UniProtKB/TrEMBL annotation:
Gene: gatA
Gene3D superfamilies xrefs: Amidase signature (AS) domain (3.90.1300.10)
Protein name in the entry: Aspartyl/glutamyl-tRNA amidotransferase subunit A
Keyword presence, Transferase: yes
Domain Amidase, residue spans: 73-484
Amino acid sequence: MSARWILEAGTTMDFDLSEADAERFAQRISDEIHGYETLDTLSKPDADESLSIRDVDEHDDPHNAYITSFTTEGGDGPLRGVDVAVKDNLAVAGVPMTCGSRVFEGVVPRRNATVVARLVDAGARLVGKTNMDELAYGPTSETSAFGVVTNPADDERVAGGSSSGSAAAVAEGSANLAIGSDTGGSVRIPASFCGVVGFKPSWGAVPRDGFVDLAPTLDHIGTLAPDVETTALGFDVIGGYDARDPSSALARDIPVGSCADGLTDVPDPEELSFGVPAELLSTHVSDHVRERFEETIATLESSGATVESVRLPTVDDAVFVWNAVTNVEFAAALRRTGLPLERPGPFDLSRLDAAAGRQATGGVGFGDIVRERALVGAVLLDRYDGRHYIRARNVCSTLADEFADALYGHDALVAPTMPVVAPKIGERKPHSYDSDDGLDVPLAYNTRPANLAGVPAVTVPDGSDGLPVGVQFLAGRYEDAHLLRVARSFEKIRDA
């Protein structure tokens, strides 16, 4: 241990160390760290799992939905006979996990993520790992190192992101259910573009052990499916408390396990009251989507539901709030090479060591969006001491209060999920809504607020002809089961 290294480490923590201090600490720290080597023998990696991995066949994967193809045997349980695709930022033992980046090729977990273990225990048949934007940073799939995912509704258009392959797999019918992640809309964006149901539960409702974070305080694991019933069935299986994820302690307040059963008795239309947030139906919504949404509102009202305008004033500035939180947490995670400091373990040593090694040697291979966003986060941390992050976290609490106020007296809020239909490939910058340079209204404008507030949100296809348009329903935090019942009510009204 050199004194120079000690001086450098002290500088990062604003310690005023003299060279004599550094020499003194260097010897003592070196002696101590030598003893830590015994941890390598005390902490054993998990045993290797073996799965038969197949090359992805273009004929069987016309929309580039999958990065890795394999099949596990399904067993008995509530998901018996259900084919499930898993986003490639969730660990499946024995299957490579790339997170949509060439940097992490060759990283093979030896332990299933908690949600994957629950799927297997429930009898699901896993059919592959799905394509995604690199490290989940992008709303279109165009940042994936494995190529863009095309939309089953129109091959010239994007599937949306970052859970692009999960949405395309469900839409094309190669999976009955898919698992995705949602930090600012990454389940709901592709679900809306591809014409399937996408559910982002309350924050903490689904454990994230074995998941590669983008921004831990905003990350949610959710489900995508052809209908609300299958969506709820998937949530029943993957949701609930897990001691390895501190955030999942909140799940003790959420009724998980019987949401699908609850759909047999859903509210009648005349029992429902909806609020339409004016900020989510502003000028950023295209004329086409606005017309489709107004038809949906007219259908709800003609069926007996009550609809009125409400306000979420902070949404107008949510782009800066989301960016400050996400970029800082993302940069911090990259700097510590994914070291899960906030989690109690136990950990998959093989995956974490391999991922850290790959990042250290191959980090130059990250795409521009990943590098740009990480650099923004680093500047906010280093140049501005993270104060924008702290203020942004405070604004999240303000936004949560606004949701509670807007929901008062209403069963749910309702808004267009996306301001536009799926763009053509190459039409939009991956991190923006507009095609001009600068910080524009992002594609995720209508989806990010739910992540910032931690409230559940679900997008359901509006049922009209043409390119898919999603209708987003939002409820109060921990009201996940109620929200799914409302969404199922809308399905019945839509299909009547």
